Amino acid sequence: xxxxxxxxxxxxxxxxxxxxxxxxxxxxxxxxxxxxxxxxxxxxxxxxxxxxxxxxxxxxxxxxxxxxxxxxxxxxxxxxxxxxxxxxxxxxxxxxxxxxxxxxxxxxxxxxxxxxxxxxx
Length: 121
Known about the structure:
By secondary structure, the protein is mainly alpha-helical. 62% of the residues lie in helices and 5% in strands. It has helices at residues 2-12, 18-33, 43-46, 48-57, 69-77, 81-91, 97-110; strands at 39-41, 61-63. A two-stranded parallel ribbon has the order 1-2. The longest helix is centred in the first third of the chain and has 16 residues, at 18-33.
């Protein structure tokens, strides 16, 4: 029963859904206001699209699987922070995770980095 419930939850959960991004943005803003360090540990931090969005929202410390470090580092070093921040603000108004992914893919494609967007849903 637990496995079935987890499967159903996991199927419905999408870290790039606009409501999730809005929640993460609120956490980042509140931590910044209170001068608290905030970090993200997990799958989203280790994915190219996830780390890009998290960086744009104000997160600077990530913990991820060791296999993801080089790719995420490479991606973030290729980008201009102000552009990533502007993209993240735009994504907060998206209507679906699919739309978020499309905007991120376009952003990366315009910078010659679309191959790094692989993975995710």
